[in-house]
UniProtKB/TrEMBL annotation:
It holds the Pfam family ParB_N. This is Plasmid partitioning protein RepB. GO terms for molecular function: DNA binding. Keywords: Plasmid. It comes from Roseobacter litoralis (strain ATCC 49566 / DSM 6996 / JCM 21268 / NBRC 15278 / OCh 149). The gene is repB. SUPFAM superfamilies: KorB DNA-binding domain-like, ParB/Sulfiredoxin. Residues 56-147 form the ParB-like N-terminal domain. Belongs to the ParB family. GO terms for cellular component: chromosome. CDD domains: RepB_like_N.
Length: 331
């Protein structure tokens, strides 16, 4: 679902105001509230126009973050790209805010955190829609917007789910917010609950690392002695300067080598993979080999163009490979 449609779906119909302003009582009524405010009902309003809704400009100094975090640090490249775009062309899409439930004359971000951060950095007001909503509607809107974002990694979604769970949100609400089933939610909570928080924070968003590899890393981190190994690696000089995916790869490989791996092993070994970055982050790739299969997956800004270049020059590249192989064999 596009972000504009998502904005329509959230502000198309107001939700019932909470009985009281505090969130402490939500844990007892979250499940029943989720029946009234579901993603289905929000999606039904996505086709409606924003009739009667006003986009206003608000000082970012008056805006606080959502009560549940959904991002890790280490996404500076995407932030700088968004900042440059807004600086040159302005903020096209408004953010969604709600009146702060605990502080008068302040606002809380429902979604659009990076746009608020950009406005703060540029010293300009934020274009926003302000909508009264309770915590359940807030969680559903923020979670649905997360699902629509392709750049949110598995571990960020897992931490978002764990944060909601720790705040007392019902599992039914979390599943609806992230549009996932109970099995995937259990896996997310297991990963986010087993891998120590300081290790996850040190790694960062790890955009190229998916669920299976995080679950494998979780099994390593379930052994206390392996956590000590990870801590020694985190303290290594220069580790904090590496990109997020490389941090994960190094931690995973070094802990496996030096630490104590769990006794129960998978029947088949996980194919070895490594990450590659060039052009100051304009092109990134994950390179893997399993038996005779060799795969290269490209992402980031130049991925499409570079991929086309490779595909158009495969014959020439293979010919050069054969030529070098023959020279090596005859020398």
């Amino acid at each position: 679902m596009a972000r504009k449609d998502l904005l329509k779906s959230v502000i198309g119909q107001p939700t019932d105001p909470p009985v009281d302003g505090g969130r402490s009582s939500y844990a007892m009524r979250g499940a029943s509230k989720s029946m009234k405010v579901s993603i289905d009902s929000l999606a039904e309003n996505s086709k409606r126009l924003l009739e009667g809704e006003t986009i206003v400009e608000i000082d970012p100094a008056l805006i606080d973050a959502s009560f549940v975090n959904d991002r890790l640090s280490g996404d500076d490249e995407a932030f700088e790209e968004l900042k440059a775009s807004i600086a040159s062309s302005g903020q096209d899409t408004p953010v969604l805010l709600r009146p702060h439930p605990e502080a008068a004359n302040r606002y809380m971000v429902v979604f659009g955190h990076r746009r608020v951060r950009v406005a703060r950095a540029l010293g300009r007001p934020v274009r926003a829609v302000v909508k009264e909503m309770d915590d359940v509607a807030h969680v559903l809107a923020q979670g649905q917007e997360n699902t629509a974002r392709a750049d949110l990694s598995f571990i960020e979604k897992a931490l978002f789910a764990r944060n909601l769970h720790d705040l007392g949100q019902a599992k039914e609400v979390i599943q609806q917010a992230l549009t996932i089933d109970g099995t995937l939610l259990s896996r997310m909570l297991s990963v986010a609950g087993t891998v120590p928080g300081h290790v996850i924070a040190a790694i960062g968003p790890a955009k190229q690392i998916g669920r299976d590899r995080w679950e494998d890393f979780k099994k390593l981190m379930a052994v206390k002695s392996n956590v000590a190994v990870a801590d020694r690696i985190l303290a290594t000089e220069g580790f904090d300067q590496l990109d997020s995916d490389t941090k994960f790869e190094i931690l995973h490989s070094k802990v496996t080598e030096a630490g104590r791996a769990p006794r129960r092993r998978a029947a088949k070994a996980t194919p070895a993979k490594r990450t590659w970055t060039a052009g100051e982050g304009r092109i990134k790739g994950v390179i893997g080999r399993a038996g005779r299969a060799y795969t290269i997956s490209l992402t980031s800004k130049d991925s499409a163009g570079f991929g086309e270049f490779l595909s158009e020059n495969l014959d020439q590249l293979y010919a050069e490979y054969l030529s070098q192989s023959e020279e090596t064999s005859t020398s």
